[in-house]
What we know:
Elements: H1 4-27, H2 35-52, H3 55-60, H4 66-86, E1 96-101, E2 105-110, H5 111-137
Antiparallel strand pairs: 1-2
Amino acid sequence: MNSVILQVASKHVRWILVLFALIALYRGHNFPGGGFIGGLLVGLSVVFYSLAYDAQKAKQSLKIQPEGYIALGLLFILVSILPGLFLKQYFMAGIWTSIHIPFLGEIKLGTPFLFDIGVFFAVIGVTLISFFTFSNITKWK
Length: 141
């Protein structure tokens, strides 16, 4: 599309969707949401950007190619599995700690959150690969 309004809006809406994705990711290990919903929101932000420009420009705007997001997600998932084994607990044990951050207070971190981050990146990669594949098949611009 050649809509100037859509092009200007897409640049701002893209980052708003990413912000909501990060909020869903962080809240997901205690409340509904998490890595899957957050990953879909990031994928949606790229799809919205490609509506304003085209799929090729959206793909070029990515810092990491979609396959890299999947690999990064699998790495986080692997890292979330290992602490339970090293601490002689069961496989995929939920190990928690909390840290104090000034102005934010106590923040709980744990292996389920690492797993959610892995799902987040893997879903981003799969969503983007699916979208770019379909956009190439249909020659959608």
